[in-house]
Structure formats: C-alpha cells, structure tokens
Design goal:
Two copies of one chain form a homodimer. Chain A is of the alpha+beta class. Chain A folds into two domains: 258 residues, L-amino peptidase D-ALA esterase/amidase, CATH 3.60.70.12; 122 residues, Ubiquitin-like (UB roll) (Roll). Chain A is 33% helix and 25% strand. Chain A contains eleven helices and 17 strands. Chain A has a six-stranded mixed β-sheet with strand order 15-14-13-16-12-17. A five-stranded mixed β-sheet of chain A has the order 3-10-8-7-6, with helices on both faces. In chain A, helix 2 runs parallel beside helix 3. At the A-B interface, helix 2, helix 8, helix 9, strand 15 and helix 11 of A face helix 2, helix 8, helix 9, strand 15 and helix 11 of B.
Chain lengths: 409, 409
C-alpha cells in the first residue's frame, strides 16, 4: 500500500518534445513485465546527473561517471529493472558496456553517448544477452508520450508508478517539466535508493543544468529516507531537450534560472515525497521539521536521526505518541552541545514538549488524534538558532519486514 | 524468544561478600511484579560507572554523574523498572532525589551516597511515592545471595534474566566476579540501552576501577547493537566490595590488574552478548567480524553499519544470504577511500566475496546453510590493514515491530 499516492492519470505526464521513450519486456528477472526502457535524446540535449555515494556503486553508475567526464553528447539512456548489476565486478562492467555498445551501434552514435541504469537484485549476473535482444523492440516503439509507461517499467517493489508534470511560463515561454522516479526501500539520501529522471523543454548548457540539479537534489531527494540504507545504484538525471526556440537559460545568474529551478524542484519534491509515501510497508507519511538550529545541516542531522529510529518508526506504525522515543533520538543525533532544556516538540499543532520537558497542558488524547492520521507532521525546535530543515519518511510496519524478508524469493 | 540464552540456574550467581540486595514490588507500572531493587554496599566499597551519551539523559543518570563528581563514598544503589524517569524535567529530578534522600535517611548515610537508576517508559511521571513506600521492605529483605532475583527485577522487555558469575585465582587469591544486566531494545552502544552491574570481591581504588570499566566497556557493551537507538538511561557499573583480605589491585600497572580486568571482561562480554541474544524479537544471534582495517575504529564503524541495516537484518530473519545488502552496507559505512576491489566476505566458513566480487566458486546453498542456523557469524575483510573488531547483533523480525508497536499499550 502507499499513503496518499495515486498513479498519474493517463495524459497527465506531458511529453518533452524530442525526447522519445521505448519500453519493452526483456525478461530480465521475470517474464511478462515491462522491464526495459530506452530514452532517446534529440540532438542538442544536455544532461546532468547525481549518483550514489556508496563505495560499492554498481557498474552502470561507474559507467555514467565515465560518460559524465567525457566530451561525448548524451544520446540515449537505457534502463533496466530486475537486476542492479551491482557487486558484479569486471563481468558486470563488460555486460553493461556491451549493452551500451549495441544500442550505440543501432543509433549510430558513440558508445559513450549511451548511459546505462539498472535497479533490482544485487550481486547476480545481469542477463545482458536478453537485454540486447530486446533493444530493437524498445527503440522501434519509442514515442514522446511514454513517460507514464516508463514510470511503471522502472518499478521494483514500488506499488504505484511515480510521476509529475507541470507547465510554467518563464521568460515569456511556456516550459514543460516532466519527471518520473522509482524507489521504495533501501532509501536514504546521498542518494535515496532510487532512479529519477526529469526532462525540461528548454536549452540549458550542461554546467548550468548540473548546478540546478545539485540545488534541487538538496531540497528533494536528499530529504527523504525510508530505512537509512544507501543503495549501490542511485541516479537522478535532469535532461534539457535543447529544442531551438525553447526557453534558454545560459547562466545561474539569469532570472529564468531561478524560475526553472523552482519548477524542477516542485517536480523533484513531489517525486521524493512519493518515495516515502510508497516506502516499503508504509502506512504513514511523516514530515519532520527541525527548526531553531544553528545551520541547516544540524537540522537535517536531527531530522534524520528521528527518521531512522526503528523505535520512532514502529511507534508511528502503532499511532502511538511515544514522545520519549522522539526525544531520545534528538538526544543521540550527535549535537554535543545541545541544551535539551530549550528543546520543544509539536505533533501537528499540539505542543507536547516545552523547555525539554512535557508541556504541563499536554493532553495525550490530542497527540493520539494527530498520530492516528495517515499523514503526520512533527516539529522539533532546537532553540539555538534560526535554521530550518525538513525530512520526509514513513513508518516501519510488519509489511516492511515481510517485503524485505521475501524480496528475493 | 531469545537465541541460545538460558536464565542462570539457582545458585549459579555467586554472592559478592558484603554486597546485599533487596527486592520488592513497588507497583511502579504494574502490580504483582518485582520492580525495585536496592543494592547495599559495605564500608570501603568503590564503584565506577559509564553512562549514556544521549543528551536527553534521564534524571537518574544526571544524579549518578553528580555523585561521581562528589567525594561521598557509595553506599547504596536503588534501581526501579517500569518507568525511566526520562524527559521529566525538574519534577523528575526532585522525585529521584527524594527517593535517594529517603533511603539515605534510613541507612544513615549522605544522600550523595545513594545512586539511582531507572528503566522503562520515557516521559511519564515516576511514581516516587510508591517507590519510597516500598524502600523499607526492600532494605529489610536485603541478602547477599540475591543476584538472580535482581536480574529478574530489572527486566523490561527482556524475556530471560541475564547474569554470569566466575571465580578466578589472581595473585594467590580466589576472586569472584558476578554480573547482571537488562536490555533488549533501544540497544546501541555508547552505551547500549541497558543497565548492567558487576560486583568483584576485591579492593580496587576508584580511579583504577574506572580505568578497568572503561576498557571492559569498549570490548563488551560498546560492541553490541540491536536497533541503533541509544537510550536515555544506560548505565554500567562496576563495584569492588573492598573486603579486607581480598585481592588488592592498586594500579593499572599491577599484574593483577590485567587478570582482574580479563575476568570482568569475560562476564561483561557474556552480558553484552546476552542483550543481542535477547534482542526484541530476535531469532538469530549474529557476530560480525571486520578484519583488515587500518584501525579498530573503522572496523567497528563498518561492523555497525552492517548491524544497523534494516535490510541486512530482515534478510537475516529470512535466512537469506543476500550478499548485496551486506556489501551495500560496507559501501556506505563512511570509509571514503575504501578500495572495494579488495573487500572479502565470508558467511561462516563459506567465502562468498573475493576482491569485491562474488567468489566464482561460491555456491549459494552453502551460504544458505550457514544462514539457516540460529547463530550466524560473518567476516568482512577490508584488505587495507591489520586491525580487527567485532560487533554483535540480532535480526529484525515481525516480533520486533509487534513488541515496539505495542510496548506502551
């Protein structure tokens, strides 16, 4: 199940002119399921990416970094689900490369123009032959209006495809931004365990696009956590189609830069929250706001300590306003000079802790009513500064255990 | 349930001469359960302690630190279960102090000679009146041979009382060491969420005893983790009875120091492992050995990343040799310059990863056989040094969620 999340309606995800997406069934892990997507980029497109910081990054992540460091223009993305091609050593690299090489041959572009992405089980051999055999069908089917089907094709344990489109008038031009993402477990920022792709109908030089993506990632995917595990395969890509006549953003100083960044951020925040809403076994979507910090980093640190606490997460599952567990997490979040006598805590609008102790006017029934809702917000004030940050997470249920105990079977 | 853990047999926990323990039912949280223990120390006893690093430490921990910093000799410990007296502000401090003052009056000692300890629910008012009313009965009943009953009286969600005794001949003297501990959830070192008390029949000046406790804690309780949550109330105390004629250890340089420390460590390691064996919902006891590190700290850091991963823990519950999750945890453990191409992994005696990739000779059935056992050991070699460390943990089951979702109800 998921919390307050529905699949995008047919027609809701607007195409980005020139970006064509083909989907097929390669039978990577199971037959009869869309599991291979090919995204073909038009001439002049630019692309920015952020990747997992996990030292055991997967072969496709290593190859994406190689491509990032090359001068070759991006021409295609090839994305499979069912197998992460991680922990697979040289053989895994060779298999990912052979897929890229085959697709590049078909498209008549440089091998480094094809970017590979994989998600699924780790440490099993990627059946690259089956993917290679399926490439012609994926390319032949590629059409612009295919983002929704792609959102479904990249799912693993996700229960709902995740996507969002919006159109904004920026600098006199109508600009469409469309994004999709997958991920529901092994979700912890830097990056969240996820694949995310956002396309914009605009002309943006790569360094400007990368700056925009870095900013957007901080306020979206790096704020979400499901279980604190950082995956081997995370990638979040921002693609500008470079269409002549579309909005041009030449510099981070342009007025249009901020407007486009905000539009991209709105889509990215929606996608990031969707990951927590569809967190494995999630029955609650939780927003943790931490205010009164000296800087945003310490606010996020406290928010994540709360969001990662299995004790807080099981209390959320039980709709139990177990304040002690929340305060305990604040206490061990690693702020050594925290004055706990200044800490405040609110569940929804109910003030439950003031000056580090239980609010004398606090009535547990009020907090219990907040905790009974499927969407819960809590705020912690550290009482030592003006910084604020937010973290999104979900609860920890029987189903989290079931899903992760059974995933490979 | 617990893994490979049985309660100490009657008579197994040897008394420490001069240390008398009285137990009674104060009705702190529920009626009809032993929930109050008073430990009375003889003249000349010394005591060392280590406490939680949680900034939201409970009132009794704050009071223990005050007593540590005073010159008053310890005369009594008063320990209640059912209520942690944490997050209770000034009222909580006053209540803990009134308990100490009352017991001190009864014993005719300084208030600072009475050390309070509490464990149980957080952020609820400690019913100090009921504890005060029960003190006379506890004192009246105090006898030396009461460690086993104390081990039961301090339990919260523990399913088995935890205790161990041993006798060693050191420097020609026969020395008894007896310890008890409680704790099964909110267990993460520095300290593990736990209360632990070890008594030794020896004369040891306080600074020497403290040095010994600090060393022992590093190799015992700081190696165990259940869920990564650090409690507000942890305390681990080492008490030397100071009996005239018993072994005297005057300095950390004495030969007898190392021998006594090893004996205390043996008891502490047993108790620490007992916490993981009785971890909430535990069905597996897991030893994670990390070798080949540059220093012990980084070995422990990697061990804890694995031990804290909900994905690894649910795979352990499922007896699934999901190697990818283990490697992923190694990869995000925070060793930035880790060369993953040198990492090796063994499940039991089965080598599953070599040079960062799957061992070509690995047969999953062999690893599955290891994972099916209730006691599992894994070894990770980082391939960059000579340091080794160990972490003990348990798996993450449906019952962990159930226990923690229902704890307050």
């Amino acid at each position: 199940m998921s919390v307050g999340l529905t699949a995008p309606a047919t027609g809701e995800l607007q195409p980005i002119p020139g970006i064509r997406i083909g989907i097929t069934q390669a039978g990577v892990r199971k037959a009869g399921k869309d599991d291979l997507a090919v995204m073909l980029l038009p001439e002049g497109a630019t692309m920015a990416g952020v990747y997992t910081l996990n030292r055991f990054c997967a072969a496709p992540v290593t190859l994406c970094r190689e491509r990032r460091d090359s001068d070759v223009a991006p021409r295609a993305l090839v994305i499979n689900t069912g197998n992460a091609n991680a922990g697979t050593g040289k053989d895994g690299m060779a298999r990912a490369q052979s897929i890229c090489r085959t697709l590049a041959g078909r498209l008549g572009c440089d091998e480094l123009g094809v970017w590979p992405f994989s998600t699924g089980v780790i440490m099993e051999t990627l059946p690259s032959e089956r993917i290679i055999d399926a490439l012609p069908a994926a390319v032949a089917e590629a059409v612009e209006d295919n983002w929704l089907r792609a959102a479904s094709a990249i799912m693993t344990t996700d229960t709902v495809p995740k996507g969002r489109s919006l159109t904004r008038v920026i600098g006199g031009a109508s600009v469409t931004v469309t994004g999709i993402a997958k991920g529901s477990g092994m979700i912890q920022p830097n990056m969240a365990t996820m694949l995310g792709y956002i396309g914009v109908d605009a002309q943006v030089p790569q360094p400007v696009l990368q700056a925009m993506l870095d900013e957007v990632t901080q306020e979206s995917f790096n704020r979400v956590t499901v279980d604190g595990d950082t995956s081997t395969n995370d990638a979040f890509m921002l693609i500008a189609n470079g269409r002549p006549g579309s909005l041009t953003v030449d510099s981070v100083e342009d007025d249009s830069y901020a407007a486009l960044r905000d539009a991209v951020a709105e889509v990215a925040v929606f996608l990031a929250q969707s990951l927590a809403r569809d967190g494995e076994g999630a029955t609650k979507f939780v927003t943790i706001e931490v205010s009164g910090g000296r800087d945003r980093a310490e606010c996020r640190q406290v928010g994540k300590a709360i969001a990662h606490s299995p004790l807080v997460k099981t209390a959320l599952f039980a709709s139990d306003p177990n304040l002690g567990r929340i305060l305990a997490a604040v206490g061990y979040a690693g702020i050594d000079d925290l004055d706990v006598g200044r800490v405040g805590l609110w569940l929804g609008d109910v003030r439950v802790v003031v000056d580090g102790g239980r609010d004398p006017d606090y009535i547990e029934a009020d907090a219990a009513a907040v905790m009974a809702e499927p969407e819960i917000s809590m705020r912690i004030d550290l009482g030592r500064g003006l910084a604020v940050d937010q973290v999104w997470t979900c609860d920890f249920s029987y189903d989290y255990v079931r899903i992760n105990a059974e995933y490979r079977s």
